[in-house]
Amino acid sequence: MGIGDCARPAGGGPLTVMYVAYYAIYVVTPLALVASLVLPWRRRWRRTRVWLAVLALLPQAVVAASLAALLAFGG
């Protein structure tokens, strides 16, 4: 039994999620920020702009949470 016998490393799940979210930062964040700035600055669109701003921060939050999970549970 060696390292090569394992089907998947212990921290594979959070690490994969972290990699996907890391690369999503370059796509999701700018698109969501531009979309939130392009929407009309009226009260009607305020909720949509807030949700787009939250969506822009989502990849960074996922990377931070995945890193915390890797540090807490090992990997």
Give your account of this protein's structure.
The protein has 75 residues and is mainly alpha-helical. The chain is 73% helix and 0% strand. The chain is built from 2 helices and no strands.
Task: Looking at this protein, list some descriptive labels.
single chain; 75 residues; mainly alpha; 2 helices; 73% helix; elongated
Overall mean pLDDT score?
83
Helix content range: over 70%
Structural class: mainly alpha
Gyration radius from CA atoms, angstroms: 18 Å
Task: Outline the biggest β-sheet.
Answer: none
* Span of the ends, CA to CA: 19 Å
What is the count of DSSP helices, taking H or I runs of 4+ residues? 2
Uncertain segments are: none
**In sequence order, what are the helices and strands, one letter per element?**
HH
What is the overall shape? elongated
Let me know the number of strands. 0
Strand residue content: under 5%
Please describe the topology of this protein.
Layout: H1 12-38, H2 46-73
Helix pairs in contact: 1-2
Short description:
The chain is 73% helix and 0% strand. The chain is mainly α and 75 residues long.
